[in-house]
Design goal:
alpha+beta, D-tyrosyl-trna(Tyr) Deacylase, Chain: A, 7-stranded mixed beta sheet, two-stranded antiparallel sheet, 3 helices, 9 strands
């Protein structure tokens, strides 16, 4: 799995004219799955997201987690994270998992983050979404799992 994690002061996702998910302080997580991702990859990704300490403490050091600040996650599935634009002008998405593989893995990440006591809002799987955010910092991290471990 591959994730782009942005520390935000607020974020939302809209489908059509309806806001389907929104949060205040926390993480906007763009999450993609590839063909050989497993439950272990999803669990490892969820645990890492839930435990990241990138919010500032009283000494202005990145030392606090989502739980520490009462933050939330806006989780948005994004198959384009596995786009390959090395050749030609149009990216290839053959490395992205098909929806029947990706959707249950993304949902598993959601459930494991929620099990940590962290609120999770989501986009709408497979829909055209308008994602709005206010990146705080800016702080942006990229994580990837392989064989159930963060790489």
């Amino acid at each position: 799995m591959r994730a782009v994690i942005q520390r935000v002061s607020k974020a939302s996702v809209t489908v059509g004219d309806a806001v389907v998910g929104q949060i205040g302080a926390g993480f906007l997580v763009l999450l993609g799955a590839t063909h050989d991702d497993t439950r272990e990859d999803a669990v490892s990704m969820a645990e890492k997201i839930a435990g990241l300490r990138v919010f500032t403490d009283d000494d202005e050091k990145m030392n606090l987690s989502l739980s520490d600040i009462g933050g939330s996650v806006l989780l948005v599935s994004q198959f384009t994270l596995y786009g390959d634009a090395k050749k030609g002008r149009r990216p290839s998405f053959i490395a992205a998992a098909r929806p029947e593989v990706a959707e249950p893995l993304v949902d598993l990440v959601r459930r494991h983050i929620e099990a940590e006591g962290i609120g999770v809002e989501t986009g709408e799987f497979g829909a055209h979404m308008d994602v709005a955010l206010r990146n705080d910092g800016p702080v942006t991290l990229i994580l990837e799992t392989k064989n159930g471990r963060i790489q």
